[in-house]
Here is the input.
Amino acid sequence: MSLVTGKEILDKANHGYYAVGAFNFVNMEVLKAIAGAAAEEKSPALIACSEGAIKYAGIKNLVSMAKAEADASGMPLCLHLDHGKDFNVIIQCIRNGFTSVMIDGSHLPLEENIAITKKIAEIAHAAGVSVEGELGKLSGIEDNVSSRESILTDPAEAERFVAETGVDSLAIAIGTAHGPKKFKGEPILEIPLVAEIKKRTSIPLVLHGASSVPADVLEKGLKYGAKWEGSKGVPEASLVEAVKGGINKVNVDTDLRMTFISTLRQVMSEKPESVDLRDLFKPCMGAVKDVVRYKMRLLGSSGKA
Ligand code: TD4
Ligand code: CA
Ligand code: ZN
Here is the structure.
């Protein structure tokens, strides 16, 4: 099956009250793990590249691998640009076969965020490509009211943003953060905000910084020498609650990185004689595939392809 748009996958999820994972990849191994998980779970998936991934691997390599895996898996996969900030990179993605782009103007003042997002939406939609915008700041919230308000997405602003920009989906801030160290103390998340924003926008909502940092993955990493002390992710129960409130796309990168790296550390320590990259990477791919399958079941996208 050829790559499908983000809108096709996410509108279906919106109507069906489930979420689809957006999994980042920078190489063939992680891409194959995601596509393999989709095939085994009969699940749609977004396969996401950051601007950094494009710089690392090259846009043509990423697009042709993504197309090949979509064909081979037969699953609805969407090739998505994650956190597009550079106008030229976004245009290159649209021209080279990405089926969804994110324009991240969340660091800009509201009026500027609306203006740039609207412009990208017009260009992308003319090319049949879906668009995700972002409103609010991805950063852990401290337990005091004034800092919360400057970070979290405001429902009234979200309503205006969606109406004026024409985005197909909206990334919101409810207290999650990127990377392995999301919370200093106990996780603080503003889950009820999801439903409030959904009521005013009705479009698919997106949760960034959604990795859970599974205990077994963390433990394996630490056991084999990773310096990952202090890592903490989004509790799975909170993820499920956020999906119930109206999240339809859940971004996961850190969990896949930690899974790959902890497995690589284990294999390298167990097979120090190996001079075959395949010996080392195959178990990593298998471990990433298992984590992706687990996420698909948790989010409710299994069986929805
Ligand atoms: O948007 N993302 C993924 C961010 C990827 C960043 O890639 P570069 O290092 O190339 O810039 C997420 O929201 C993932 O959140 P997570 O909780 O997995 O960190
Ligand atoms: Ca942002
Ligand atoms: Zn993100």
Remarks:
- The chain has one domain: 6-299.
- The two ends are 11 Å apart (CA to CA).
- The beta strands are 20-24, 45-50, 77-84, 100-103, 130-135, 169-172, 205-207, 247-252.
